[in-house]
Design a protein that fits this description.
Elements (H helix, E strand, L loop, with lengths): L1 E11 L26 E20 L4 E14 L18 H5 L1 E2 L6 E10 L8 H7 L2 E10 L3 E2 L2 E2 L15 E2 L22 E2 L5 E3 L5 E3 L12 E2 L3 E13 L7 E9 L13 E2 L18 E9 L1
Parallel strand pairs: 8-16
Antiparallel strand pairs: 1-2, 2-3, 3-4, 3-5, 5-6, 6-14, 7-13, 9-10, 11-12, 14-15, 15-17
């Protein structure tokens, strides 16, 4: 599957922002008679490729399983649309070369496995024991997906461009994504792989600055990947037939959302120069801690 998007709306926080450099900001603006110029434009572009697969099977003894897997890759040149945060670009006028990269919605792997099992025990029982112990159903829905990309920014205006658009640091040429066994909430990525960018120069391989090579940060957009999700939702249900009313029954159902209470982390702090840089400090609001729900439904 493939799709392309064009003319996507976004906002530029300051089209009149100067390039990094020394001296007063106002004197270096393209339109010196104006200060900040906020613009809304519709020139964002995106591209999405995916491979999708699905599996369904009815096994014996009342077991049904459905599974779906998607590999996808989404590339664009804006961070968000107008109402969701805007361009997020280093330069409002040099976006093509600097901003094309992984989308914030780029979830590379996603698998969902669901099923229902008619529990076998109690089927041979009769009377009260059969009514209570027989006919139960168990269900599950497991969602596993890789994390979403994010960019590294930096605090302050060391590029001396007015501070209205995002500034990214320089990268020292190493992959800041740590192997899975080395990641934890206190250090999700290699924070030493970045140094602050200034208008004075870009870093050499030894981390020192090269005089006269000032400019925008060399760290790409959305080059790091945040924590993924691993959520197990379970359920148990049973229909109790009413012997005194044919065709009437009461359904009992209990559901466990995030049944194993696995923490689903947000992306770590991404601003170089702050104490939270590289640290995961919160969990996803859409995937809360374990929740249990009980319900009774009268069917007739």
């Amino acid at each position: 599957m493939a799709s392309k998007s064009a003319n996507v709306d976004t906002s530029l926080r300051n089209f009149n922002q100067p390039d990094p450099g020394p001296g007063p900001v106002q004197e270096r603006r393209p339109y010196q008679g104006f200060a900040t110029i906020r613009m809304m434009v519709s020139d964002g572009n995106g591209l999405y490729h995916s491979m999708q697969s699905r599996y369904e099977h009815r096994f014996s003894k009342g077991l049904n399983v459905t599974a779906a897997y998607t590999w996808g890759h989404m590339i664009d040149d804006i961070t968000e649309t107008i109402n969701r945060g805007g361009c997020g670009c280093q330069s409002a006028r040099l976006r093509g070369a600097l901003e094309r990269g992984n989308s914030v919605e780029d979830v590379r792997h996603r698998m969902v496995v669901g099923g229902v099992w008619e529990l076998p025990w109690g089927k041979q029982l009769t009377g009260v024991a059969g009514a209570v112990l027989g006919g139960w159903q168990g269900g599950w829905l497991v969602t596993m997906e890789s994390g979403q990309p994010f960019s590294v920014s930096q605090s302050g205006d060391t590029q001396n461009k007015g501070g209205n658009e995002a500034s990214r640091p320089h990268t020292l040429g190493v992959n800041a994504n740590l192997p899975g066994g080395q990641r934890d909430p206190s250090r999700w990525f290699d924070t030493t792989a970045f140094v602050r960018s200034t208008y004075q120069g870009a870093p050499a391989s030894n981390g020192l600055f090269l005089p006269g090579s000032g400019g925008y940060g060399t760290a790409g957009r959305n080059t790091l990947v945040g924590p993924g999700a691993n959520v197990w939702d379970l359920s148990v249900s049973k229909n109790f037939k009413l012997p005194w009313k044919e065709g009437h029954s009461i359904m009992f159902r209990t559901e466990f959302f995030n049944a194993f209470n696995t923490p689903q982390f947000n992306n770590p702090g991404n601003t170089l120069g702050t104490g939270s840089f590289g640290v995961v400090s919160s969990t996803r609001g859409l995937n809360p801690n374990r929740q249990m729900q009980f319900a009774l439904k009268y069917l007739f």
